[in-house]
């Protein structure tokens, strides 16, 4: 009986996906000629045309810092949810939370060792 409901669900999901693709194909705008205007190929942001084409290069440290922030932010959510059930978790839950926090501290020490959080070295590289 479960296989019939799974096949029905899977079939309806495929039909829905196909239906949405077909509808978007008919409702979407099709370009007549891509080479008619070069202004259609430039980025347009906040209603301001760009003055000149400029490619900005960002240091990889910004990416590493952003990813580290997201990871630690999500892990802090787990700590808050653990704090709401601390009384029901008993000692086993407390030990698991301590292991989790130690894991966070080890990963933070790793980031410090890899100089992800050191911005002085980045400013020194810019000046030279």
TrEMBL record:
Pfam families: Oxidored_q4
Keyword Transport: yes
Molecular functions per Gene Ontology: NADH dehydrogenase (ubiquinone) activity; quinone binding
Subcellular location: Cell membrane; Membrane
GO cellular component, one term: NADH dehydrogenase complex
Enzyme class of the recorded protein, top EC level: translocase
EC number: 7.1.1.-
Catalytic activity annotation: a quinone + NADH + 5 H(+)(in) = a quinol + NAD(+) + 4 H(+)(out)
Domain of life assignment: Bacteria
Membrane topology note: Multi-pass membrane protein
Gene3D superfamilies assigned to the protein according to its UniProt record, in alphabetical order: NADH:ubiquinone/plastoquinone oxidoreductase, chain 3 (1.20.58.1610)
Membrane-traversing stretches: 6-27, 62-85, 91-112
Keyword presence, rRNA-binding: no
Keyword terms, alphabetized: Membrane, NAD, Quinone, Transmembrane, Transmembrane helix, Transport
Signal sequence residues: none
Similarity annotation: Belongs to the complex I subunit 3 family.
Role played: NDH-1 shuttles electrons from NADH, via FMN and iron-sulfur (Fe-S) centers, to quinones in the respiratory chain.
PANTHER family referenced in this protein's UniProt entry, alphabetically: NADH-QUINONE OXIDOREDUCTASE SUBUNIT A, NADH-UBIQUINONE OXIDOREDUCTASE CHAIN 3
Record protein name field: NADH-quinone oxidoreductase subunit
Source organism phylogeny: Bacteria, Pseudomonadati, Pseudomonadota, Gammaproteobacteria, Enterobacterales
């Amino acid at each position: 009986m479960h296989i019939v409901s799974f096949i029905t669900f899977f079939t309806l999901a495929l039909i829905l996906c196909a239906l949405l693709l077909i509808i978007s194909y008919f409702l979407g705008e099709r370009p007549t000629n891509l080479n008619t205007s070069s202004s259609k190929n430039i980025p347009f942001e906040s209603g301001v045309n760009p003055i000149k084409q400029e490619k900005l290069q960002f240091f990889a440290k910004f990416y590493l810092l952003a990813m580290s922030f997201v990871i630690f932010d999500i892990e802090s959510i787990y700590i808050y949810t653990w704090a709401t059930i601390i009384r029901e978790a008993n000692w086993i839950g407390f030990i698991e939370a301590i292991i989790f926090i130690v894991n966070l501290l080890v990963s933070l020490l790793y980031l410090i060792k890899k100089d992800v959080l050191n911005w002085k070295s980045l400013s020194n590289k810019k000046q030279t």
